[in-house]
């Protein structure tokens, strides 16, 4: 799991950063969707990605031990 690429894709998806010249919003979203379908990623991250809760996914990356769901 490439955490830095996931973080960048989430930042692109949320509009925090613009995609690089050779990338696009659609490509970032496609990578996140594919990651959500992968087995072996942490359950909370899979949950956030599958529901396109990208801000929560970014929060999770910063602190995976913090309870994010109530």
Give the tally of structural domains.
Answer: 1
Protein structure class = mainly alpha
Q: What's the helix-strand series?
A: HHHH
Sheet-strand content, in percent, reads: under 5%
| Mean pLDDT across all amino acids | 92
Task: Give the termini distance in whole angstroms.
Answer: 26 Å
The largest sheet, given as strand count, sense and whether it forms a barrel, is:
none
Q: Which percent range fits the helix content?
A: 55-70%
Shape: globular
Put simply, the count of helices is 4
Point out poorly predicted stretches. none
Radius of gyration: 12 Å
Counted beta strands? 0
Task: Please specify the SSE layout and strand pairing.
Elements: H1 3-14, H2 25-37, H3 43-50, H4 54-62
Helix pairs in contact: 1-2, 1-4, 2-3, 3-4
Molecular structure report:
- The chain has 70 residues and is mainly alpha-helical.
- It has one domain (3-15, 23-62).
- 60% of the residues lie in helices and 0% in strands.
- It is built from four helices and no strands.
- α1 (3-14) runs antiparallel to α4 (54-62) and α3 runs antiparallel to α4.
- The model has no long low-confidence stretch (mean pLDDT 92).
């Amino acid at each position: 799991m490439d955490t830095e690429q996931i973080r960048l894709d989430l930042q692109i998806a949320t509009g925090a950063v613009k995609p690089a010249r050779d990338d696009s919003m659609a490509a970032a979203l496609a990578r996140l969707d594919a990651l959500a379908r992968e087995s072996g990623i942490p359950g909370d991250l899979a949950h956030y990605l599958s529901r396109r809760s990208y801000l929560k996914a970014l929060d999770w990356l910063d602190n995976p031990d913090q309870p994010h769901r109530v």
